[in-house]
Write a structure and sequence with these properties.
mainly alpha, 0% strand, rod-shaped
Length: 75
């Protein structure tokens, strides 16, 4: 029985060690997404919702996205 308990402990220890970097990476990704939304996407989201266009007639939306893509510094 001691061997079985040791195996379980080893497996559990390995699982914890392997999960830690994944949890840290997930948090880093979450932080990066939140920062990108705060600095870049929030204003764009708000602009599009303040200035709606009909489906398939999104001329101003397309122009705004094209301008933002061509001139990322102008944001």
């Amino acid at each position: 029985m001691a061997s079985r308990s040791s195996s379980r402990t080893l497996i559990l220890s390995l699982a914890v060690l392997l999960a830690a970097p994944a949890a840290n990476a997930a948090q880093s990704l979450s932080d990066a997404i939140a920062e990108d939304y705060r600095t870049e996407l929030k204003a764009l989201f708000e602009h599009f919702h303040r200035n709606p266009e009909l489906s398939f007639l999104e001329h101003e939306t397309a122009a705004r996205l094209a301008d933002d893509s061509a001139n990322p510094a102008s944001r």
